[in-house]
Amino acid sequence: MTVQELPGAGASHRSTQPPAWSPRTDAAPLLPDPEPYRVLGTEAADRLDPELMRRYYAELVRGRRYNAQATALTKQGRLAVYPSTVGQEACEIAAALVLEDQDWLFPSYRDTLAAVARGLDPVQALTLLRGDWHTGYDPREHRIAPLSTPLATQLPHAVGLAHAARLRGDDVVALAMVGDGGTSEGDFHEALNFAAVWQAPVVFLVQNNGFAISVPLAKQTAAPTLAHKAVGYGMPGRLVDGNDIAAMHEVLTEAVRRARSGGGPTLIEAVTYRMEAHTNADDATRYRGDAEVEAWKAHDPVDLLERELTARGIIDEAAIQAVREDAEVMAAALREGMNADPVVDPMDLFAHVYAEQTDRLREQAAMLRAELEAEDQA
Amino acid sequence: MAQALTRAMRDAMAEDPTVHVMGEDVGTLGGVFRITDGLAKEFGEERCTDTPLAEAGILGAAVGMAMYGLRPVVEMQFDAFAYPAFEQLISHVAKMRNRTRGAMPLPITIRVPYGGGIGGVEHHCDSSEAYYVATPGLTVVTPATVEDAYGLLRASIASDDPVVFLEPKRLYWSKADWRPEAPTVVPGIGKALVRRAGTSATLITYGPSLPVCLEAAEAAREEGWDLEVVDLRSLVPFDEQTVVESVRRTGRAVVVHEAGGFGGPGAEIAARVTERCFHHLEAPVLRVTGFDIPYPPPMLEKHHLPGVDRILDTVARLQWEN
Ligand SMILES: Cc1ncc(C[n+]2csc(CCOP(=O)(O)OP(=O)(O)O)c2C)c(N)n1
Q: Quick check: is A312 catalytic?
């Protein structure tokens, strides 16, 4: 039945047709391939760059060691909490390495490894989790935004920064990281929409590690994949094997290139798995079985690359050994850095609230100073 | 006042290319209250930008822009529609300087048309200042005069800290002998002003309630009261000195605002005045505020808003029985 045939739609109506509208018809290229993109173990691996892959392999091994060391530090009480990225190292490292110096990384609370892989001193990166301050570094110096604890809230920042850089004519790309749970937050959607409307040079990287604390992806979204969400905003969505660092490299590099050349934002869903509990405070046995974890072990990001590179003669036993030793040196330095008791100054409480201290804060600072002096004398 | 606000943004944009205005309908339309009228035309859509309709997105993007060195001036269309942006405001805007130990201050101005008295339907008339003043890291100012609309907005845009700039809607159309060609210099953020000198009691107020208090002070003359009226202008930082000096002179104080009384700014101010002026007070510090109710429908708002009579009744109660 057309509108004209509807009862009551008589000739007396001047027009029953709404004005023509023009939907975008070019959505097809935006759609993700529903099979995660892979390189390792496929023909595509023939074109691997040995130099780059050695670098990635070294970073992966260091990343794995970093995770182990940070987790050990929580057991020793040196870190208040640590959200492990064991199993997700390929995502973390590729995200850091595809960026140029002038680009910006917007990590979530889980992404200390990405910040470290970008060159941030591990002790500075862990300040938030150790508890001596919220952010232990100058974001502008490293072009790494503060690790964001409120989920997805850093995504609109990435959009704003990238937009501002483009307005100024600067060649800057922002890469923002978020978890699968974070994609349900309003800020995720607002950020994607802004980025697409503004054609901002941003790459959104979703690490779909299966769970938001205890909640599996199926209870988080009814979408076919998280990458599909991109289409509704008018940007391409890409699905990639998050444990395949060569695939991560290719997909991220392409998205960064696109952003840099004015092509606008991309949403990438990296399918990966969180091998350890959400944090050391969480009990993963309550919501998932060993079989699932075991199955993912067979698809470990470090092993995947090691196997491929060994088979192709790009690394050998000696090279692997050298990389492991190098990782031990990093771990020892991290231990040492973290074992020094952080020096905290209680007066810092008032130092960075406003550019100019208010009377109220001055009074409260004086009160604390008097309390501290009294303590010293006691 | 509307003109003065427009002029303030225009002058700031002309002087400083990093100032960017953004929000819903601020471009072609010039804002629903026309406060950004002409800015897009003069400075281009890149500097006066119609954003998608998403308050968290607007403020969140402004955070990123400020991180990169711009000075965003964000318009929230109405008081009650700023709430979706509260997470950005509280978790990031207010805290970024602190989180980064001063390395990354955020010079963002957030303009919020607020308050009632314009016959608006629900969600268009909230007095939301208590939420803002309870958030450390935010500066909160509200002009009551045309000079202040210009002067305080210029100061807010120039501030290296985020400022919530509360615009009393019902004063948008207030006229004064103000010539935009020669904007007056006004005292900056953090300074309260005695708008009317008096001897028998102090009315402490701000924003939309200032004209009401001035009217009440005139009316009180007939009752033999000579009321002093202090306009706070800035809620954070709070100019305790001006307030305390005034109350010590007069010995009596009434705080007047539209926002609800329980947990409202008046509660804080009354407590501070009591702490600092206890021996000078002839009576407890009283408050005249809106009721502790969701903002009422237009036909009932006159019963809710503190008016001259309610202020006078309260002033009469300052004759405290010893
Ligand atoms: C706005 C907000 N709500 C709730 C939390 C508490 N929280 C911390 S992590 C987390 C789960 C996040 O899951 P996901 O986004 O998948 O990231 P993952 O931890 O798996 O990396 C929750 C609910 C939070 N940090 N922020």
A: no
Q: Is the dihedral of CA A181, A204, B95, B162 positive or negative?
A: negative
Contacts with A153 from chain B: Cβ below 8 Å: 60, 87-88, 91-92
Name the pairing type of β-strands B227-231 and B193-196. antiparallel
Instruction: Report the chain A residue with the minimal C-alpha distance to residue B53.
Output: A190
Mean pLDDT, residues A265-273:
98
For ligand 1, say whether the CB of A210 is within 6 Å of any of its atoms. no
CB B225 within 8 A of CB B251: no
Could you say which DSSP state residue A109 is in?
T
Integer CA distances (angstroms), A325 to A48, A114, A304, A350, B217, in order: 25, 21, 20, 44, 81
Q: What is the arithmetic mean of pLDDT over A291-297?
A: 96
pLDDT at residue A16, as a whole number = 77
8 A C-beta contact, residue A103 and residue A302? no
DSSP A272-334: ----S-SSTT--GGGT--HHHHHHHHTT-HHHHHHHHHHHTTSS-HHHHHHHHHHHHHHHHHH
Vertex B92: Cα angle to B89 and B96 (nearest 5): 130
pLDDT > 90? residue A144:
yes
Of A150, A191, A355, the CB nearest to B57: A191
Average pLDDT, integer, range A348-353: 95
Strand partners, A216: A211
- Searching chain B, which residue's CA lies closest to the CA of residue A188? B57
Q: Is the CB of A110 under 6 A from ligand 1?
A: yes
The answer to whether residue A4 scores a pLDDT higher than 70 is no
Contact residues, A window 294-353, toward B, CB-based 8 Å cutoff: 348, 351-353
Contact: A150, B70; criterion CB under 8 Å: no
User: What chain A residue is nearest to B105 in terms of C-alpha separation?
Assistant: A355
Segment B18-63, tens digit of pLDDT? 999 999 999 999 999 999 999 999 999 999 999 999 999 999 999 9
Model ipTM? 0.90
- Indicate which atom in ligand 1 lies nearest the CA of residue A83: 19
Task: Quickly state the pLDDT bin for A328 (edges 50, 70, 90).
Answer: very high
Q: Inter-chain contact B105–A165, Cβ cutoff 8 Å?
A: no
Kindly report the pTM of this predicted structure: 0.93
Q: What angle do CA B218, B219, B221 make, to 5 degrees?
A: 75
A191 touching B, CB under 8 A? yes
Mean pLDDT of chain A: 94
pLDDT exceeds cutoff 90 at A166: yes
Q: Ligand 1 centroid vs B92 CA: distance in angstroms? A: 17
Sequence-ordered list of residues with C-beta below 8 angstroms from that of B133, at least 6 positions apart, any chain: B140, B235, B236, B265, B268
Which chain B residues are Cβ-neighbours of A133 within 8 angstroms?
99, 101
- pLDDT above 70 covers what percent of chain A? 96
Q: What would the two tokens of residue B77 be?
A: 């269309």
Residue whose Cα lies nearest atom 12 of ligand 1: it is: A212
